[in-house]
Amino acid sequence: MVRQAGTKQADETIHKAGQVVAGGTPRRNNKVIFAYNPVSMEFRMIDGVDVAIVGGGPAGSTVAALLAQAGLQVALAEQKPFPRQKVCGEFISNGARPVLERLGLLAEFDSLAGPPLRRVRVLTQTGQSIEAPFPSDIAGAFPRAISRDLFDQLLIARAREWGAHILQPCHVTAIAGSTGAGFLVRTGGGDIRSRCVVVAHGMPASPAVAGRLAPTGADNGFVCFKTHFTGCNLPNDLIAIAGVRDLYAGLAPTSSGPDSYRDRTHPPAAIDCRRYNLAFVARRRLLAHYPDADSLLAYLFRRNAPLLGMIRHARRIDRWHACGPLVPGVRRIFSDGCFFTGNAAGEVHALIGEGITLALRSARLLSDKLVHGLRAGEGFEDIGLAYEAAWRCEFYRRWRAGNLFSELLMRPLLGEVAAAVLEAFPELMTLAVHYSGKTPAAPDRFGGVSNCRTPGND
Known about the structure:
By secondary structure, the chain is α+β, with helices and mostly antiparallel strands. The chain is 32% helix and 22% strand. It has helices at 8-14, 58-69, 97-102, 106-112, 148-161, 207-210, 293-303, 305-311, 355-375, 380-410, 412-424, 427-438; strands at 45-54, 74-77, 91-92, 119-123, 129-133, 144-145, 165-167, 172-178, 182-187, 191-199, 222-230, 238-244, 247-254, 275-283, 315-316, 321-326, 329-330, 334-335, 338-340, 346-347. The longest helix has 31 residues, at 380-410.
């Protein structure tokens, strides 16, 4: 029986070492002691975990699952109830497939995701279209797209199944401590004591957590929007990328089924089986002239006729979702027992469709470094330095590629020059797709993916 914190039974239970009160089921030789209300997620204390994780998106849930599978005690706090939609291009490149396979979710992902995406087409505002094939992996698989409410629920459920303690909804208000003294993660429902902390929230974060991040220049940056359509004039195996001054957008076939639409504005009977995700990113200065998603979309359509032709007769079946500011760049990756992963470590422009893939791969990299380091008796400082070096080696190239491609699309003159070059030398487009990281690199000795040698990866 679950005992609510604050009752006499709960107070007695909290002081019984080696026992977990969570649906009345003790686990292994668990040193975690807590009691909570399953509706409000109020609890007195979670004490003695190895790792506390802030954020239950793709990065946080993946770290939680892999660390729990390795036998570490993990508590994950996610402030939003699932399922929920989130601003995202929903594109999952082949670089994510090895991580999904390791999580035992590849078959389920393939059954839920949209159709295989074999081509990418870039649409310029002068009407030019440049197309290139997506490379398949060694098994012949191609990238797919999946709605975030389905995907995030899939990942966090796996973390729970493998033994991570999921606190949801649970809002983190402060993180205090150090590697020597341990950490205290304060939440709206109670406290979590841990040996180290993994920060895996999306951006922007709450002030309490963001205070541990390096400055990002958030007064600049971009705003992001997403919605879903049906009835688009888009081939089922194609993702379209369009650009105008200070804005770029992506349109892709995504997962089907009314279960993907918790925020839908039409009943299921009004929705056909083919659905498309439209996401776009705009410089914040555009908001002075186009203050909302609809006016920004009209601005995009007026200046990019090819994209308008794909959506002219489509019907929007979801509300607009928005977030920001997006400030692409590398942030803090490790600091005195705090490990950063996913968007908390660095954000890449959504243009190259690598956000979720980078989140999954950086989460796997972190979990491998933590498990290997702790088993070898290394301190968190040494583990953190090895993780930071490997992270920069693995992902810095993609961040640079995302900046370059997005600037080309959002600057019409540069975009037209680039389009002319790509049209004259089409093999460069395929090379650009490869350079952005859409093909997996060779696995390293810990099951991760690495393009270079780093400390702890020798």
